[in-house]
Amino acid sequence: MGAVRRAAVVAASLGALFIASPAAAATPTAGSSGIGDRLYPNLGNGGYDVQHYDLDLRYATSDPSQSVEGDVTILARATQSLSRFDLDFGGHSLAGVSVNGQPAAFTRKGEELIITPQSPLGDGQAFTVKVTGFTASPATVSSNLRSTVFFKTPDGSATAPQPFSAHLVYPCNDHPRDKATFTFTFDVPSGTKAIANGEEVSRATAGGRTTWVYSMDEPMATELTQLAVGNWDLGAPRRDGAVILRDASAPSLTASLQPAFALEPSQLDYMQSLVGPLPFSRYGILVVDADVGFSLETQTLSMFPEPVFSTYGKAVWDPTMLHELSHEWFGDDVSPYSWSDIWLNEGHASWYEFLYAQSTGQLEGDTEFYPDPQGYATFDELMRAVYAHGDEWRQDFGPVALPLNNTDAVQYSYNVYHGGALVLYALRQKIGATAFDRIERTWVQRYSGQSASTDDFIALASSVSGQDLTAFLRDWLYGTRTPAMPGHPDWTVNPVKTHKTTTVTSAAVRLRHGI
Questions:
Q1: Which of 147, 163, 215, 515 is an S-S bond match for 142, by CB 3.0 to 4.6 Å?
Q2: Which residues pair with 297 in a beta bridge?
């Protein structure tokens, strides 16, 4: 898609929004400064629904540490009569704001950008908001999670904004409940390369500058944004059935990564055989020369730090790649309605990782570095060991679908990853493999392109299986004690009274399976 087609797509999106816009009726009020997430009450915003982001970024030089300047045009629809509304934005500065082409008043309060249009917006009214001249700077990676949101490497800069920090780079409604399509335009020095989510639709060079345009045509959560600019090796795209595979890597790593790149087609076939076609037309991985500390399923282009491949053997990095790929279905295409639902992402990704590792004879190596459990040869043995920790982890971190708080130690705990996989194991034990497989396929089909909750999963599981699973799954997902495992009456949990509180998830697990 060239520049002309890109303009047509944006215009069509805007036109479609305005066709059905009803007249305002209710008295205008301010949109809320939070979307209603129990773990992140100030994240996201209320009063409107974003349809599309048109993000235009300018990189003045090829210096990886340079600040970036940009404009963003947001197409949205009001969900109430709005006197004003907020965007999330924690960047350095901005030049101006307009709504429907008219200058708008704005103020900043913490990481909220509060916008007052010249005229109120009616309930159901489509509108555009444009923020110009915002700036953001990449950070040096450190132990502070925010340093990885927009980070620099020897070769350039990239992003890893999960769960709450895309707004540190560009103004947005920064919550996966409000997904949208995206267009990315990068204005960079000639010879500098850019890669983003979705499809490369044009590339043009003039006057010593190159403009790259990417389009993410399926809805995406802001936390999955990938903006990578620098001296990347962009491998030649490969077709695998209906999917185009494309990869990017730091030049110093490219040769050593060929075995990993070569595994992508077979991994794709594995996942598609279990849950259906990849929901996107493209997939690939970006490997950066930086110790970011975690891998991340940025949509259609999963990000991996170099130590995943240099520190661990194939029995680790192979299943880790499958883990991130599975997120394209579980977490990316079907996003969490709230961050308490993160087990739907990580429990499913861990489930398919472990199944894959067992099928390839790598499960023992895949679990070798876990503090406890570790080194299990079969999935059943692993699940039994996880089950033993059930009450301990629920005490430390809260129920699987009701984390105690939003700290890293809780939100990315063993109870979310392993405990989430254990819930799926219990469900399969309860209803059988055939019904379980139908639930998995139906889940990703029913909620494709949407955000769905734990209660949505419970309702769908009951409907597809033909059994009322409400009480069963609510016990597993919201209970403070681990229920009995169907089919395994001999499985027991460790006594909580003898348990010492678990600390943050190990560096090995975080590095391999996300933050």
A1: 147
A2: none
pLDDT digits (tens, 9 = 90+) for 241-257: 999 999 999 999 999 99
Helix (H, G, I), strand (E, B) or coil at 362: coil
Q: What's the CA gap between 232 and 253, in Å, rounded? A: 10
Backbone φ/ψ region at 6: left (φ over 0), alpha (ψ -120 to 50), beta: alpha
Of 231, 253, 277, the domain-final residue: 231
- Structural contact between residues 150 and 141, judged by C-beta atoms closer than 8 angstroms: no
For residue 501, what are the domain limits? 239-515
Specify the pLDDT at position 163. Answer: 86
Burial status of residue 250 (CB atoms within 10 A of its CB: 0-12, 13-18, 19 or more): buried
**Domain CATH for 455:** 1.10.390.10
Last-in-domain residue among 231, 258, 275: 231
- Asked whether the beta carbons of 201 and 258 are under 8 A apart, the reply is no
Beta bridge partners of 128: 75
pLDDT above 70 (res 463):
yes
β-pairing verdict for 209-220 and 180-189: antiparallel
Give pTM, 2 decimals: 0.93
Amino acid in the structure at residue 351: W
Among 417, 399, 405, 375, residue whose Cα is nearest residue 505 = 417
Residues 6+ apart with CB under 8 A from 306: 250, 253, 287, 288, 289, 290, 291
